[in-house]
Write a structure and sequence with these properties.
The complex is a heterodimer of chains A (about 575) and B (about 210). Chain A has about 575 residues and is of the alpha/beta class. Among the domains of chain A are: about 35 residues, no CATH class; about 120 residues, Leucine-rich repeat, LRR (right-handed beta-alpha superhelix); about 130 residues, no CATH class. Chain A has 23 helices and 19 strands. Chain A has a 17-stranded mixed β-sheet. Chain A starts with 11 loop residues before the first helix and ends with a helix. Chain B has about 210 residues and is mainly alpha-helical. Chain B has twelve helices and three strands, in the order H-E-E-H-H-H-E-H-H-H-H-H-H-H-H. Chain B has a three-stranded mixed β-sheet with strand order 2-1-3. In chain B, helix 5 packs across helix 8 and helix 8 runs antiparallel to helix 9. Classes of the chains: A alpha/beta (about 575), B mainly alpha (about 210). The interface between A and B is large, with 104 and 87 residues. Chain B: This is Skp1-related protein. Chain B: Belongs to the SKP1 family. Chain B: It holds the Pfam family Skp1_POZ. Chain B: InterPro entries: SKP1 (IPR016897), SKP1-like (IPR001232), SKP1-like_dim_sf (IPR036296), SKP1/BTB/POZ_sf (IPR011333), Skp1_comp_dimer (IPR016072), Skp1_comp_POZ (IPR016073).
Chain lengths: ~575, ~210
């Protein structure tokens, strides 16, 4: 328990001195009355930026404000256009002595040495390997931290063999790793080899709990060893199964291996090959992996029969699930009810596509999935019976809805707010139907990405408008587009993607609708945030492409910086 | 959507060779039963007494959200719950637990006692920390009198109600967000014990943060 002022030993003197200076009522209004422990805890919710700004509030704050910084991510550093130099990062690390986790991107590579020098408590790192990082820095980093690292995430964006072999060797110096994520790429770091040793008979990381695996025929033997050696320790696996370089036999080995992992709690499978191969094995996993609590599938389902087969398999064999996420393409027209999952009585988190223009899935959801705390759906018509069913879910805390029809977004937010006192957040993402040109251009880009040859495809999520419940206001965030592109393959023409994005941005800027902020017309009390464009990449296989594209996009977006600022001003004026 | 596993190095290895003991159906029934028991217990009202002497009634399950109260009740080793209800009020011996603060605290635990518990299978702590306050909590904690706000936070801390301390912390940090040192001092009535020279020195060290202004 944290102690309050009076019981603390250290601050007593200060406290009494201040009481002498000021009246009791004033003291009551002052935060100075709170002791070190409580004050430190309260300040632990500040952002990194706020902490640096507030260091000079008082000596108490200076003493406490950095002690609770245990994680620094590139988002903390990149927010609000702060210019961070090598020297700045060094001074940040010097003040934040208790940092355990660092998530830095390739911009921060030059600081690897500074990290090695300053972060005595580091146990988790997310690093990017590209040509700006030196072999010596990597070597020094792993030599220094080896045994204390428990989580390592490496994003390889280089084809430099020395760098990769140094990193592989470095990782072998880290016997205590419990979480390992390395993106796979040709001739890169082979995760399974790392796990099982070159001969395939070692257990390199006895404490391993979480791992990402890229699976193909070349990995089969190592995978078998991995599944055998780590079956009692690994709790979370994220496996990507491509449809080239895999055949039924090796998928059989993969799935049988997975079903032997008795400690498995959390399984994520991205499955590209033929769907029917998958179903039988899923059943096997459900029967064998009794600790399994979370399943996430990224899978394209082409027919209604396959969809109902999948639901049936899950419903009958994965009754213990608490979290289920199914993303990927569903058939154009499909029927799906919440009853099809009615045995999953413990399900707390669900992400799924629901039938378009229909409230089929939502009506009755309170009877079928009574434990739901978080629901993320795409499509569905929101009707009165649908809202009633949702409001009868006693534990529902979070709702995310995309591309809904029926009631307007505003009505949905307001009704749910009134009907569900336990609800913590509602987010509604919608395309703005008035932006026809932009929407059609975005569709073109998505179609282009999806039509790329096997293994090179991209996927995207595109919304113009995102509504977030907050206070009594409904906050509307204007989002031009959020694109997730993965994985990137050889046939992706970087220039074509950037050109298309440029066309979209231009169309957006010249759209007369933007003046009236079409999205705000529905609401009176609306805050509009500046235009946000998000791009996220997941690199795979042909890393050169990812670098090329991300650099091209960074160039594009920064060259458009001024016009984009103007748009954000316009959007605010339109309010 | 999945929680990340703990990054703590101290975390032990999963015991190897343990047979899976989990039976989903039994677990579910047990959880259901526990939930019903919590509901029943909350119908029993106990009395809490503020530092100023005011007595407030509170459901038993809700009151147990205070780890301190829960420990005190455990120490009684009383199996007959109705006897607990007729007991003397539990005194809360800290000057932050004013009548007003205790009234608000009872209101808060009464709203939150049936919140779903933290799921030990997933480590969602980071998400919870970063989550914005709910509509209800925002309205609850938006208190005009700062003295009263600090009373509630200090009292919740004394009573060890983690969720409520967190609501207070997020509220205060939201208010601090983006403000300058001087504004923060002004708002939270904090005494500046730095000399101007010391303050200037810190300002210089953290220059990068002001670069964009």
């Amino acid at each position: 328990m944290l102690k309050t002022g009076r019981k603390d030993r250290a601050p007593v003197v200060q406290w009494e001195r201040r009481v002498g200076l000021r009246s009791d009522t004033n003291m009551k209004q002052s935060m100075d009355r709170l002791g070190d422990d409580l004050c430190q805890h309260l300040l632990s919710y500040l952002s990194l930026e706020d902490r640096f700004r507030c260091e000079c509030v008082s000596k108490q704050w200076q003493r406490l404000i950095y002690t609770t910084v245990t994680e620094i991510t590139h988002e903390d550093l990149d927010s609000n256009e702060l210019t961070i130099t090598e020297k700045t990062l060094d001074s940040i690390l010097k003040k934040c002595q208790n940092v355990k986790t660092l998530v830095v991107n390739r911009k921060h590579n030059p600081w690897l040495d500074s990290i090695t020098k300053r972060c005595t408590h580091l146990n988790a790192i997310h690093m990017t390997l590209n040509d700006s990082v030196s072999v010596e820095s990597i070597e020094r980093f792993f030599r220094h931290f080896g045994r204390q690292l428990s989580a390592v995430n490496v994003l390889v964006l280089t084809e430099n063999d020395d760098l990769m072999s140094t990193t592989s060797a470095g990782l072998k110096r880290c016997p205590n790793i419990s979480r390992l994520i390395v993106n796979e790429c040709e001739n890169g770091i082979n995760v399974l080899r790392l796990l099982c040793g070159d001969n395939g008979n070692e257990v390199s990381f006895a404490r391993l709990q979480k791992i990402h695996i890229y699976f193909d025929t070349e990995n089969v033997n190592h995978f078998e060893t991995f599944a055998k050696s780590y079956r009692n320790t690994v709790k979370a696996i994220d496996v990507f199964v491509d449809d080239f370089n895999t055949d039924d036999k090796c998928i059989d080995i993969l799935m049988t291996g997975l079903s032997r992992m008795s400690a498995l709690v959390d399984l994520k499978v991205t499955f590209k090959p033929d769907f029917s191969v998958f179903l039988n094995h899923l059943k096997q996993i459900g029967v064998n992996c009794l600790n399994l609590k979370s399943v996430s599938l990224v899978i394209d389902i082409d027919s209604n029969e396959n969809l109902s087969e999948l639901m049936k398999t899950i419903n009958e064999n994965l009754k213990q699930l608490k979290r289920l996420q199914i993303s990927g393409n569903f058939p154009e027209e499909f029927a799906l009810t919440s009853e099809s999952l009615h045995r999953l009585k413990r399900l707390t988190h669900l992400t799924i596509n629901t039938p378009k223009n229909d409230d089929l899935f939502l009506v009755g959801i309170d009877r079928h999935l009574p434990a739901l705390q978080s629901l993320h759906i795409r499509y569905a018509k929101i009707t009165k019976p649908a809202l009633n069913s949702l409001s009868r879910l006693p534990k529902l805390q979070t709702i995310i809805m995309c591309d809904i029809t029926g009631y307007t977004s505003k009505t949905v937010v307001q009704r749910l707010n009134d009907m569900c006192p336990k609800l913590r957040s509602i987010t509604i993402k919608q395309r703005n139907p008035k932006w026809e040109l932009i929407n059609s251009k975005l569709d073109q880009l998505l179609a282009y990405l999806q039509a790329l040859p096997d293994g090179d495809g991209g996927e995207g999520e595109v919304y113009n408008q995102c509504m977030i419940q907050s206070d009594d206001l409904i906050k509307v965030r204007l989002v031009l587009a959020t694109l997730r592109i993965k994985p990137l393959g050889q046939s992706v023409a970087t220039t074509q993607i950037t050109e298309q994005i440029q066309v979209i941005i231009t169309a957006f800027m010249t759209n007369p609708m933007i003046n009236t902020s079409a999205n705000t017309s529905e609401h009176n009390s609306v805050q509009t945030d500046p235009l946000i464009i998000g791009f996220q990449f997941k690199a795979n296989n042909h890393t050169g492409k990812a670098t090329e594209l991300s650099e091209a996009l960074v160039g594009l977006v920064s060259s458009l910086a001024t016009p984009l600022d103007q748009i954000s001003v316009l959007a605010k004026n339109g309010n | 959507m999945n929680g990340e596993y703990s990054l703590d190095t101290t975390e032990g290895m999963a015991a190897s060779g343990d047979p899976p003991t989990n039976n989903a159906v039994d677990d579910y029934d047990a959880e259901e039963a526990l939930e019903r028991q919590r509901e029943e217990e909350n119908k029993i009202k106990i009395k809490l007494k503020s530092f100023e002497g005011g007595v407030y009634e509170c459901g038993l399950t809700a009151a147990k959200m205070s780890v301190m109260v829960a420990n005190m009740l455990d120490a009684l080793q009383e199996t007959d719950l109705t006897k607990i209800a007729t007991r003397e009020p539990i005194p809360l011996q800290n000057d932050a637990v004013t009548n007003k603060a205790l009234e608000k605290i009872v209101e808060w635990v009464d709203h939150h006692w049936d919140d779903p518990p933290i799921d030990p299978d997933f480590d969602d702590e980071k998400e919870r920390r970063n989550e914005e306050l709910s509509h209800w909590d925002k309205q609850f904690i938006d208190i005009a009198d700062q003295g009263e706000l600090f009373d509630i936070i200090a009292a919740a801390n004394f009573m060890d109600i983690k969720g409520l301390v967190e609501v207070g912390a997020k509220h205060i940090c939201n208010k601090i967000k983006g403000k300058s040192c001087t504004e923060v001092r002004e708002m939270l009535k904090i005494h500046n014990d730095f000399t101007p020279e010391e303050e200037a020195a810190i300002h210089k060290e953290n220059e990068w943060i002001y670069a964009k202004d």
